[in-house]
Amino acid sequence: MAKGQEQAAPDAVLTRIGQVVMLHHAGDREEARHRFLGLWEEIGEHGDPLHRCTLAHYLADTQDDPADELAWDLRALSAAEELARGRSAGPHEGTPAARALYPSLHLNLAADYDRLGRREAARLHLRRARTAAEALPDDRYGEGVRTAIRRLESRLGEDPAPDGPWGPPRQRP
Predict the structure, then answer these.
(1) Which of 17, 52, 96, 137 is placed for a possible disulfide with 79 were both Cys, Cβ 3.0 to 4.6 Å?
(2) If you write DSSP's letter for every residue of 13-51 in order, what string do you get?
(3) Which helix (H) or strand (E) element contains residue 84?
(4) Residue 115: C-alpha distances to residues 37, 69, 71, 122 (Å)
């Protein structure tokens, strides 16, 4: 291969997480939770922060109890902050991957706090999600996160700036 054309080796743990995410999206929530917990045991609470962030982020979605979901979302945010601050000597140190998850991480926390009746905490994380989402690209993921932020703003009675910080939603042809 020519210089600059080398491909990064696939990350086996992230691949395994992705496989379980597909299982969850296919409707097998219980089995997905079981497999995610098995991966968490392998990774450990001091494992690679990107792995912990990604796994906890998705594991939260498999929880039945809103307090458990909040606990996993808080673990995901903690790992993302650890990674972003460069506290890891692992292979993902300084990677923008965790920072790209911030809008979704804060949005999930806002929704968790809302379900638990903690409106002020929900509004705080909603504002953080909105601020972090300004850096998202204008792609399907970014649009999806911004749409979810608008929905939660509406549910919480938040009064965003006219058309939000990103302008009105794009119309598809």
Answers:
(1) 52
(2) HHHHHHHHHHHHHTT-HHHHHHHHHHHHHHH-TTS-HHH
(3) helix 66-84
(4) 23, 10, 13, 9
Asked if 63 contacts 34 with a C-beta cutoff of 8 angstroms, the reply is no
Euclidean distance between CA atoms 152 and 71, whole angstroms: 20
Task: Quote the tokens at residue 76.
Answer: 């995901």
Q: How far is CA 25 from CA 72, 80, 120, 167, in A?
A: 18, 23, 31, 30
pTM of the model: 0.81
Give the residue carrying structure tokens 């962030």: 53
Burial group, residue 11, by CB count within 10 angstroms (0-12, 13-18, 19+): middle
Predicted pLDDT at 96: 65
Asked if 73 and 60 touch (Cβ cutoff 8 Å), the reply is yes
| pLDDT(100) > 90 | no
Contact 76/56 with Cβ under 8 angstroms? yes
Residues 130-148 have pLDDT tens digits of 999 998 988 999 999 999 9
Q: How far apart are CA 58 and CA 11, in angstroms?
A: 17
CB 38 within 8 A of CB 60: no
